[in-house]
Design brief:
single chain; about 270 residues; mainly alpha; 10 helices; about 75% helix; globular
């Protein structure tokens, strides 16, 4: 039996894992954002300046990942203790709770990062001050509902697969999975979930990047409305723009993320502080 990770341990391990991924794969994320933007890939910057926005992504990655994993591990224990048994729906429910908490950090980070990735702002301070001036605090949460609507089904698909793969592998070899094995499970699970939820990712990007002229109303006012506009004006294929870098980012990122999380957790347990 694996040991349940306490809140503080999951917080630190999750922060380490999140930062590792966001820094290593930022160029892929920039390409995905530009492919999904309304202006198009090359008008948004093409392959130039793929590290734009890396500072904001780095600053937000650790808190976001830490919020997710600490909530996930805590809720997993709460749900399991309340039912007295383990079921795949427990992982899904705990994942959903984790995503809602993490999005409180991830969405403001994404709003700033994506607008920098398409060349709208040249510095983090400019992005933050302009967003605050134009839209107030609410401006940093543009697309929050859509992001949650993307992350919850993603989590419901990814984490049960991740936990099931780990359990099956562990049972088969007669011992707990290694960090590398855990990373492989997370990578495959993430690739599947990422491909399925791409339309919601496109929707989220459009909402976050929308910048109407002074006095003009926003077109992308909600998840359903945005999906409908894109589908009607650009066709169903447009809802899957950026699927290649998204799946690639999640596949490679899943390996790094879960590997870093598993390894950090293992090392933290060895310190004897928990």
């Amino acid at each position: 039996m694996s040991k349940e990770s306490p809140f503080s341990l999951a917080l630190i391990a999750g922060g380490c894992a999140g930062t590792s991924v966001d820094v290593a794969l930022h160029p892929l994320d920039t390409i995905r954002t530009r492919l999904q933007s309304e202006e198009g890939f090359f008008k948004s910057g093409g392959f130039k300046g793929v590290y734009r926005g890396i500072l904001s992504a780095t600053l937000g990655s650790a808190p976001g990942a830490a919020a997710f994993f600490s909530t996930y591990e805590t809720m997993k224990k709460v749900i399991k203790n309340s039912t007295g048994q383990e079921h795949w729906t427990h992982h899904s429910g705990a994942s959903a709770c984790g995503e809602v908490a993490a999005c409180l950090v991830r969405v403001p980070t994404a709003v700033v990062t994506q607008n920098m990735q398409v060349g709208r702002y040249n510095s983090l301070s400019e992005a933050v001050s302009t967003t605050l001036k134009k839209n107030g605090i609410r401006g940093f949460y543009a697309g929050y509902t859509t992001t949650v609507a993307r992350e919850i089904p993603f989590a419901f698909i990814q984490f049960p697969i991740y936990e099931a793969f780990k359990k099956t592998w562990s049972d088969w070899q007669g011992e707990e999975t290694s960090p590398v094995q855990g990373a492989a499970c997370g990578s495959v699970a993430g690739a599947i979930a990422g491909a399925i939820t791409t339309p919601l990712d496109v929707c989220k990007t459009r909402i976050m990047l929308e910048n109407p002229a002074e006095g003009q109303p926003k077109r992308y006012t909600g998840t359903y409305t945005t999906l409908a506009i894109i589908g009607k004006e650009e066709g169903a294929r447009a809802l899957f723009k950026g699927i290649e870098p998204r799946v690639m980012w999640i596949t490679i990122g899943g390996f790094i993320f879960f590997g870093a999380y598993e390894k950090a957790t293992e090392m933290l347990w060895r310190t004897g502080a928990w």
